[in-house]
Amino acid sequence: MPNDSMPELELRNVRTRERIVDTVTRIRQKSDVPARTRLALAKTRQRWHRDPTPLVAVAMTAAAGIAAIVVGARIRNEPAGRLSALREPAPVPVFKPVKLRKDGQSKGVPVFARKDPTGNPVYQERQAAEKRRKKDAKRNKKARKRITKAAKG
User: Fold this and answer.
1) Which of 114, 113, 121 lies closest to 89 in space, CA to CA?
2) pLDDT surpassing 80 at residue 27
3) How far apart are CA 119 and CA 86, in angstroms?
Protein backbone atom coordinates (compact mmCIF):
# COMPACT_ATOMS: atom_id res chain seq x y z
CA MET A 1 0.00 0.00 0.00
CA PRO A 2 2.56 2.66 0.90
CA ASN A 3 4.50 1.94 -2.30
CA ASP A 4 1.44 2.04 -4.58
CA SER A 5 1.48 4.60 -7.35
CA MET A 6 -1.30 7.16 -7.90
CA PRO A 7 -2.85 5.36 -10.89
CA GLU A 8 -3.04 2.11 -8.88
CA LEU A 9 -4.75 3.91 -5.97
CA GLU A 10 -7.21 5.59 -8.34
CA LEU A 11 -7.97 2.27 -10.01
CA ARG A 12 -8.55 0.64 -6.63
CA ASN A 13 -10.79 3.56 -5.65
CA VAL A 14 -12.86 3.22 -8.87
CA ARG A 15 -13.25 -0.53 -8.37
CA THR A 16 -14.40 -0.01 -4.77
CA ARG A 17 -16.99 2.54 -5.95
CA GLU A 18 -18.23 0.09 -8.58
CA ARG A 19 -18.61 -2.63 -5.94
CA ILE A 20 -20.53 -0.25 -3.68
CA VAL A 21 -22.82 0.73 -6.56
CA ASP A 22 -23.41 -2.94 -7.39
CA THR A 23 -24.19 -3.67 -3.74
CA VAL A 24 -26.65 -0.77 -3.49
CA THR A 25 -28.34 -1.87 -6.73
CA ARG A 26 -28.66 -5.43 -5.43
CA ILE A 27 -30.12 -4.16 -2.13
CA ARG A 28 -32.68 -2.09 -4.05
CA GLN A 29 -33.65 -5.12 -6.13
CA LYS A 30 -34.02 -7.26 -3.02
CA SER A 31 -36.11 -4.66 -1.22
CA ASP A 32 -38.51 -4.12 -4.15
CA VAL A 33 -41.22 -6.52 -2.93
CA PRO A 34 -43.82 -5.93 -5.69
CA ALA A 35 -41.25 -6.60 -8.41
CA ARG A 36 -39.99 -9.73 -6.64
CA THR A 37 -43.56 -10.93 -6.22
CA ARG A 38 -44.26 -10.40 -9.91
CA LEU A 39 -41.06 -12.24 -10.78
CA ALA A 40 -41.93 -15.16 -8.49
CA LEU A 41 -45.43 -15.41 -9.98
CA ALA A 42 -44.03 -15.34 -13.52
CA LYS A 43 -41.54 -18.11 -12.68
CA THR A 44 -44.32 -20.17 -11.09
CA ARG A 45 -46.52 -19.77 -14.18
CA GLN A 46 -43.63 -20.87 -16.40
CA ARG A 47 -42.99 -23.91 -14.21
CA TRP A 48 -46.70 -24.76 -14.19
CA HIS A 49 -46.86 -24.75 -18.00
CA ARG A 50 -43.60 -26.66 -18.37
CA ASP A 51 -44.27 -29.41 -15.80
CA PRO A 52 -46.93 -29.04 -13.06
CA THR A 53 -45.87 -32.17 -11.13
CA PRO A 54 -43.47 -30.45 -8.66
CA LEU A 55 -45.98 -27.69 -7.97
CA VAL A 56 -48.74 -30.22 -7.37
CA ALA A 57 -46.42 -32.11 -5.02
CA VAL A 58 -45.65 -28.91 -3.11
CA ALA A 59 -49.36 -28.09 -2.88
CA MET A 60 -50.17 -31.59 -1.61
CA THR A 61 -47.40 -31.38 0.97
CA ALA A 62 -48.67 -27.98 2.13
CA ALA A 63 -52.23 -29.32 2.36
CA ALA A 64 -51.04 -32.33 4.36
CA GLY A 65 -49.09 -30.04 6.70
CA ILE A 66 -52.09 -27.79 7.29
CA ALA A 67 -54.32 -30.83 7.85
CA ALA A 68 -51.80 -32.20 10.36
CA ILE A 69 -51.81 -28.92 12.25
CA VAL A 70 -55.62 -28.80 12.33
CA VAL A 71 -55.92 -32.44 13.42
CA GLY A 72 -53.22 -31.92 16.05
CA ALA A 73 -55.08 -28.94 17.46
CA ARG A 74 -58.29 -30.98 17.56
CA ILE A 75 -56.56 -33.90 19.30
CA ARG A 76 -54.95 -31.55 21.80
CA ASN A 77 -58.38 -30.35 22.89
CA GLU A 78 -59.68 -33.89 23.41
CA PRO A 79 -59.23 -35.61 26.78
CA ALA A 80 -57.52 -38.54 25.05
CA GLY A 81 -54.88 -36.19 23.65
CA ARG A 82 -53.34 -35.55 27.05
CA LEU A 83 -50.68 -37.77 28.55
CA SER A 84 -52.73 -38.04 31.73
CA ALA A 85 -55.17 -40.14 29.72
CA LEU A 86 -52.53 -42.87 29.62
CA ARG A 87 -52.92 -43.35 33.36
CA GLU A 88 -56.63 -44.00 33.03
CA PRO A 89 -57.51 -47.61 32.38
CA ALA A 90 -59.29 -48.27 29.15
CA PRO A 91 -62.87 -49.40 29.61
CA VAL A 92 -63.31 -53.08 28.94
CA PRO A 93 -66.60 -53.73 27.13
CA VAL A 94 -68.75 -56.60 28.33
CA PHE A 95 -71.72 -57.90 26.41
CA LYS A 96 -74.94 -57.86 28.43
CA PRO A 97 -77.62 -60.07 26.92
CA VAL A 98 -81.23 -59.03 27.17
CA LYS A 99 -83.83 -60.90 29.16
CA LEU A 100 -86.55 -62.77 27.35
CA ARG A 101 -90.24 -62.47 27.98
CA LYS A 102 -92.47 -65.47 28.57
CA ASP A 103 -93.33 -65.64 24.92
CA GLY A 104 -89.61 -65.89 23.97
CA GLN A 105 -89.20 -62.37 22.57
CA SER A 106 -86.52 -60.07 23.93
CA LYS A 107 -87.43 -57.13 26.14
CA GLY A 108 -84.85 -54.79 24.65
CA VAL A 109 -81.64 -54.51 22.68
CA PRO A 110 -78.40 -56.19 23.77
CA VAL A 111 -75.85 -53.66 24.98
CA PHE A 112 -72.19 -53.44 25.85
CA ALA A 113 -71.47 -52.33 29.39
CA ARG A 114 -68.19 -51.31 30.99
CA LYS A 115 -66.56 -53.95 33.10
CA ASP A 116 -65.25 -53.16 36.55
CA PRO A 117 -61.57 -52.22 35.93
CA THR A 118 -60.15 -54.35 38.77
CA GLY A 119 -58.81 -56.90 36.27
CA ASN A 120 -57.22 -54.21 34.13
CA PRO A 121 -53.39 -54.21 34.47
CA VAL A 122 -53.17 -50.44 34.00
CA TYR A 123 -55.68 -49.94 36.81
CA GLN A 124 -53.84 -52.40 39.05
CA GLU A 125 -50.52 -50.64 38.46
CA ARG A 126 -52.07 -47.27 39.21
CA GLN A 127 -53.62 -48.57 42.42
CA ALA A 128 -50.28 -50.07 43.52
CA ALA A 129 -48.47 -46.79 42.78
CA GLU A 130 -51.06 -44.85 44.76
CA LYS A 131 -50.68 -47.27 47.66
CA ARG A 132 -46.87 -46.93 47.58
CA ARG A 133 -47.14 -43.15 47.47
CA LYS A 134 -49.41 -43.06 50.52
CA LYS A 135 -47.13 -45.47 52.39
CA ASP A 136 -44.06 -43.34 51.58
CA ALA A 137 -45.85 -40.17 52.67
CA LYS A 138 -46.83 -41.80 55.97
CA ARG A 139 -43.23 -43.00 56.56
CA ASN A 140 -41.84 -39.55 55.75
CA LYS A 141 -44.30 -37.90 58.12
CA LYS A 142 -43.24 -40.23 60.97
CA ALA A 143 -39.56 -39.58 60.23
CA ARG A 144 -40.16 -35.82 60.22
CA LYS A 145 -41.91 -36.03 63.60
CA ARG A 146 -39.10 -38.13 65.03
CA ILE A 147 -36.45 -35.67 63.78
CA THR A 148 -38.25 -32.62 65.15
CA LYS A 149 -38.80 -34.40 68.50
CA ALA A 150 -35.08 -35.28 68.68
CA ALA A 151 -34.11 -31.70 67.79
CA LYS A 152 -36.29 -30.26 70.57
CA GLY A 153 -35.39 -32.69 73.21
Assistant:
1) 121
2) yes
3) 17
